[in-house]
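Let us work through a complete example step by step.
Step 1: write down the sequence.
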Amino acid sequence: MQSILSENAGSGPMTHAANAGSAVAEVRSGNGVRFGAWVSKPYGEGNRLESDFEIEINGEVKRGTVWFQSRAYLLKPSGEALLAVGFFPALAAGLPLTLGEPVSGTTLDHIPRLAEVFGCWLDLPREMTVHARRTQGPERSSRRTLSCFSAGVDSFYSSLHGLEPDAALLFISGFDIAADNRVLLETALGGVREAAQSMGRELVLVETNARSVVENLGVRWSFSHFSVLAAVGHLLGGSFDRFRVASSHNYREIFPWGSNPLTDPWWSSEGMEFVHHGSALTRVEKVEYVANHPVAMKHLRVCWSNRKGTYNCGHCEKCIRTMVSLRAVGALDRCTTFPLPLDLKVVARFIIEDEDTLNLVRENHDYVQRRGKDPALERALRYCRDQRFNRGLLRWIRKAWTWWRYT
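Step 2: predict the structure and record it as tokens.
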């Protein structure tokens, strides 16, 4: 089972007590993760919220500040946001979490289930203590949806499919692009702004250092990323009451991951509903859908490598498999954001590193095979898939030979 802890994080014994939602007013000391009350500061027409935190283990204390800011929107201090940011650091370290803001009873009631599921998935103890004053939050009133948008395949699909006319789009600086990487951030943000304008959507911009905070506290981003999204959603609860998050995988591929249709809704409160959207479709089916929209073909951004600050590098794993999907649906020549044509030799020799990538290769191969219009691409994908099997078989033969030779 994959560990939630980063390689440089401690991995001492962990014990948990199921006590989610106990009310305390005093400042606690001793082993634990503690977040102070939000402090609001002016920032443009919006504001900046800061919370000082500390994590204490056997007398050693780490301190820092987590912050969120928006120039245009007034962020609302929220205990649910503190809970979301502190959940994984506390769970991973096996420590109680103490919060300086009151927390919705609805959200607190979900914590035992969240701890149970992620504890099971990540081979951690399945209970967690939260010390916070329990409160009854206001009921949903604004009836307006905010949909996460990065200009990728998943977020384009969720922004184009069944979204209410008055819904807005959200882009977070510091989420998948570091806030201090200004050149790349402005390049990506330029495409996001143009795409939102073309779709007639308001774009909400939020900046945060929450990713660096949770990673520095020893938590892998692949598990904690949705908790940061949940924090942003709760902080924007004064303007929106529904938060749509695009799925990364379809229902047949659910595996331990920070965002999924099972646990995402459990971050909801009385006033904010989290909706996991798009799990009924495979990635190539989403590509087929967004390929019919010129705005996506003009602004699609999937790259995590961003070599030399490019919008899509055309060489990394995400670029290659997205280009494969675009060619599979007959739309690669209409997508203007990839700098290179697709080299089928690169596809055939593509190294599959994990089960997630293998599933995506299979999806593309099966789609191309059913469509029957691109035999060259089908052969390249089949070779790529079979090479994964052949490499695994070779490793097994080597292990068997070593066992026979030395036993």
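Step 3: interpret the result. The first helix runs from residue 79 to 93.
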